[in-house]
Design brief:
The protein has 69 residues and is of the alpha+beta class. The chain has helices at 2-8, 22-32, 58-65; strands at residues 40-44, 50-54. It contains 3 helices and 2 strands, in the order ααββα. The chain has a two-stranded antiparallel sheet.
Length: 69
């Protein structure tokens, strides 16, 4: 769902498969403070700040990417 949503909104993203890529898993553990649930989203905003989202939270995603409903 998340991937389809981001494609629909034309948001560039990098998908990392933590169950198949040990380096991606280690990165996620470091960034998330040990959380291993997916999806775990780290969005880098235009100003360089980051937002972290646990799960597919459409409302929070819309807020970050500036989508109005």
């Amino acid at each position: 769902m998340l991937k389809d949503y981001l494609l629909e909104k034309k948001v560039q993203f990098t998908e990392k498969l933590v169950d198949q890529d040990e380096a991606a898993k280690t990165e996620m553990l470091n960034v998330s403070g040990g959380f291993m649930g997916v999806p775990y989203i780290v969005m880098v905003k235009d100003d360089g700040t980051t937002e972290k989202i646990v799960g597919f939270d459409k409302g929070k995603l819309d807020q970050i990417i500036g989508v109005t409903q």
